[in-house]
Amino acid sequence: MKRNCYDDETFFQGYKKIRENEKNYNNMLEQPAMHEFMPDVRGKKILDIGCGFGGNCREFAEGGALRVLGIDSSMRMLEVAKKETDHKDIEYFNLEAEKLHEIKETFDIVYSSLTFHYIEDFEKLIVDISDVLKKDGILLFSQEHPIITASPNKNLGWNYDEKGREVSYSFTNYNVPGIRGSHWFIDDVIKYHRTIGQIVTTLAEHGFHIEVLHETSPKPFAIEKYPRLKREFVKPHFLIIRARKI
Ligand SMILES: C[S@@+](CC[C@H](N)C(=O)[O-])C[C@H]1O[C@@H](n2cnc3c(N)ncnc32)[C@H](O)[C@@H]1O
User: Fold this and answer.
1) Where are the alpha helices (DSSP H) in 70-217?
2) CB under 6 Å to ligand 1: residues?
3) Tens of pLDDT along 51-73?
4) Which residues of 157-166 are buried (b: 16+ CB within 10 A; e: fewer)?
5) Could you tell me the pTM of the whole model?
């Protein structure tokens, strides 16, 4: 199994701390948009790829989903999920998204929050998802926006004015897809950059109709709670796509 940074003690503790603070990019920027585009879960079978602590799985189960399968390649994340977000209709399973083809079951909805940028072979992922998705089923996923995965250095690409305010954002080698190392709690957190064109074309070539392509922007409620988020008008941080298998 490939190394997963979420199993690294320093990374895990840093990530957990961010998620415990209400004012984080997940709660303020990504999740509000994912909720907006998530179909009705009642009576549905849902697969969550990279389910992490299982917060979304629990929401789906409590919202009336028939069955939720949460997969993740980090044992550490799954240990927390099994302890904190357990539910009779959820099954947590230690599996790399790269081995999705091992799942012999079909779903109405495939959901994935902020995991796809860790997966190298996007085309295989989409083929495998198509195989486990029923006809007319929905794939809803978020990932770091390609502007972010194309940040110029190991940190992010912010440019500041003389007062220290974020006024613009640099990215580079946008048209060179592939592996990128970044620093997030630890060095060499591996992510994969691909262009919006590649992502959309791969989905279309494998029988998906794109219903929503959303680039996150802060909403008034979030700016009120977390004023620093105003900087997110400079560029989108996350890309969210809802696609239907036709
Ligand atoms: C940013 S976290 C998001 C967790 C969860 N989806 C959420 O939104 O709370 C990314 C998750 O993807 C998982 N992950 C990373 N690479 C993976 C892979 N190749 N296969 C399965 N899970 C992976 C990590 O272990 C981690 O739990």
Assistant:
1) 75-84, 122-132, 146-149, 196-205
2) 4, 6, 50-53, 55-56, 72-74, 77, 96-98, 113-115, 118-119
3) 999 999 999 999 999 999 999 99
4) beeeeeeeeb
5) 0.97
